[in-house]
Amino acid sequence: MKILVTDPIADAGLERLREAGYEVVTAYDVEGAELREEVRDAAGLIVRSGTEVTEDVLAAAGELVIVGRAGIGVDNIDIDAATDHGVIVANAPEGNVRAAAEHTVAMAFAVARSIPQAHARLRTGEWAKGEYLGTEVNDKTLGIVGLGRVGQEVARRLSALGMDLVAYDPYISAERADQLGAELADLEEVLDRADFLTVHTPLTPETANLIGEEELRRLGGGYVINCARGGIVDEDALAAAVEEGVIAGAALDVFAAEPLSEDSPLLDVDDVILTPHLGASTEAAQENVATSIADQVIAALNDEPVLNALNAPSVDKRAFPRVRPYIELAETAGRIAVQLFEGRVNAVEVEYAGTIAEEEVEIVTASALKGVFRPLELRVNTVNAPRVAEERGIDVTESKTSQSDVFQSRVSVIVTDGEDDIRVCGTLFAGDDPRIVQIDGYRVDAIPHGHMLVARNYDKPGVIGLIGTVLGENDINIAGMFNGRETIGGEALTVYSLDSEVPDEVIDRLEEDERIMRAQYLALNNHAK
Ligand SMILES: NC(=O)c1ccc[n+]([C@@H]2O[C@H](COP(=O)([O-])OP(=O)(O)OC[C@H]3O[C@@H](n4cnc5c(N)ncnc54)[C@H](O)[C@@H]3O)[C@@H](O)[C@H]2O)c1
Ligand SMILES: O=C(O)[C@H](O)COP(=O)(O)O
Predict the structure, then answer these.
(1) Ligand 2 probe mutation, 9, 48, 102, 282, most atoms within 8 A of CB
(2) What is the ipTM of this complex?
(3) In this structure, are residues 247 and 221 in contact, taking their beta carbons and an 8 Å threshold?
(4) In angstroms, what CA-CA distances link 71 with 39, 97, 307, 404?
(5) Does the active-site annotation cover 103?
(6) Least packed by Cβ within 10 Å: which of 345, 398, 433, 495?
(7) Cα–Cα distance between 449 and 446 in angstroms, integer?
(8) Is domain 2-93+284-301 classified as CATH 3.40.50.720?
(9) In the annotation, is 277 catalytic?
(10) D-isomer specific 2-hydroxyacid dehydrogenase catalytic domain: which residues (predicted)?
(11) Backbone φ and ψ of 88, nearest 5°
C-alpha cells in the first residue's frame, strides 16, 4: 500500500512506515493536477502546513483511508470534505507544543530587545549601541488569547520570567487558568491590560481577524506576537499600527498567505520581526510529530483506533440505526445551548430519558460535545471527546433514566458554569422526526436545523407581530414559530425556525423594542451559514 508524503517530515516517521511494510512516496511541493494524480492510489497521505488538502484532492483519492497531519494546525485540510469521503483526518497535537512555546518566548524577547535589527546593523559594520532601548518582560502583563496546549506552555514559561498573566479563552475553565496563575477575562480587558499580546488559537471563522485595527488601538503601546496562524491578526492593520506607533512592535511566525509575499507591508516596518513559520522546526518536535503520525496512519490502515482522529466516530454497527437520528439532534442541542449560554462552560451534561437510555449512546454524547465545542477548529468524536473536555477542565457527565415525561425518548444537553445553566432538550416525533422541545425550561417545538431566532421577551400584545413584521420587512421567511411563556404577561421565550439567516441589524432593530430583552440568531448546521 502506498503512503504519499507531500511535506517534509523527519526520517524517523518515514522509516517507521517502511518498517511496517508500506511503500512510502515523497513528493514535496506537489499541487493541483500533479497532487491529484499522486494521491489517486494512496492509502495514506501525510502533510504539514504546506499542502492544501481540498475537496478536489480528496475526490481524486479513491483509495485514501487517512490524512495524517504531522503537526497541529489542520486549517489546510478540508475536514468536512474528508468526512464526506469517509477519510479519517488525524493530527499530532502534542509533539511540537514545546517548540512552538519556546519560539513564542524567543519572539517576545527578540521584538522587545530589537535583536534581529541590532544584529543586522552589526553585520553592516554599525555599532548602534545607543539606538536600542529595550523593554523587559519582567513585571509586565502578558495577554494570552487561546489558553490551549501552546498557550499554557507559553504561560508557564513567561510567568516564570516574571510576567503577570491575563487570558481570553471562552473554552477553558477558570480552575485550569488558576492553576497556571492566569486570570481569565474578556478580550477587551485582555487588550486593556496587556503589555505583550500573544495569540494561540486555531484559525477559524471566529478567530479570523480577531485582532484588527480596533483591537490594536485598544492594546495601545504593547507588542503583538503571533506564532499560531496567519490571519488571526489582520496583517495590514498590524503593519499600519506599528508604523504609526500605535503599538510598539510585532513578531510574527505565521502569515495569512505562505510563503509571505515580497509585497507584504509587514516587510517594510522596522519594528516588525518575522520568521518563516519556524515554530515547530526543532529536531525533537519534528521527530515527535513524524513518528506520532506514522503510528496513526499504520493504526488506521490496520483498522485500529486512531488516537488523534478528528472526524472518526466509533459505533456499534448493529445499534447504529436506532441511535443514528439522535446524533444530529444532540449536536444541535449542544450548539443551541452553548450559543445561548452567557457564562464560561465548565461542565456539560447529556441526559438520556426513556427508550434511548437503553442504547449505547457514546456517539450521541460525543455529538452533543461536538455541538458545544463547535466554535473550535477541533472536531470532537468518541475517540477524542473526553480528552478535549479534560484538557479544558470541562466535566462531562452522561446520565440515563428509563423515565421520560410526555416523550418516549428525550435527549437533553445542559451546559453550566457551576452557577447558571442552559438546558436544551430534543426528541423524535413519530420515531424519526427530530425536534427541539425545550429551551431553558420553556416548552418549544423547533426544527433542529437551518436558521433559528430565539427571543426572550415579555408576553405582551404585539410582540410576536412586531418580530414577524421586522423579519418580513427584511425578507426573512418564517418556517415555524413557538411561543413558550411562564405566566400570562410574564417572561416568554419565542423560537422561530427561519429560511435564512438574521443579520445583526435586524437583531439590533428587535432589541430596540423594550418588550424584547434579548434576541439571538443561531446557525444550526453547516448548511445554515
Ligand atoms: N508556528 C508554529 O509552527 C506552530 C506550532 C504549533 C502550533 N501552532 C498553532 O498554534 C495554535 C494553538 O495550538 P494548540 O496546540 O495550543 O491548540 P489547542 O487547540 O490546544 O488550543 C487552542 C485554544 O484556543 C482556544 N480558542 C478557540 N477559539 C477561540 C476564540 N475564538 N477565542 C479565544 N480562544 C479560542 C481554544 O479553546 C483552545 O484552548 C494553532 O493555531 C496551531 O496550529 C503553530
Ligand atoms: O500547526 C502546526 O503544527 C505548526 O504550525 C507547524 O506547522 P509545520 O508543520 O508546517 O511547520
Answers:
(1) 48
(2) 0.99
(3) yes
(4) 20, 9, 14, 45
(5) no
(6) 433
(7) 9
(8) yes
(9) yes
(10) 3-311
(11) -70, 140
- Which of 31, 63, 258, 360 is catalytic? The answer is 258
Q: Between 349 and 300, name the one with better pLDDT.
A: 349
Q: For ligand 2, which residues put their CB under 6 angstroms from it? A: 48-50, 71-73, 96, 277, 279-280
pLDDT digits (tens, 9 = 90+) for 38-67: 999 999 999 999 999 999 999 999 999 999
Q: Please tell me the class of the 97-274 domain.
A: alpha beta
Per-residue pLDDT, 382: 47
In order, the DSSP letters of 183-219 are EE--HHHHHHH-SEEEE-----TTTTT-B-HHHHHHH
> What's the rounded Cα separation, in Å, for the pair 455 and 468?
12
pTM of the model: 0.73
The three grid cell numbers given for residue 210, joined into one nine-digit string: 480577531
Spans of all domains in the chain: 2-93+284-301, 97-274, 313-446, 450-524
Q: Is the CB of residue 233 less than 8 Å from the CB of residue 199?
A: yes
Residue 59 C-alpha cell reads as 475526490
pLDDT of residue 317: 54
Which atom of ligand 2 approaches the CA of 50 most closely?
Answer: 10
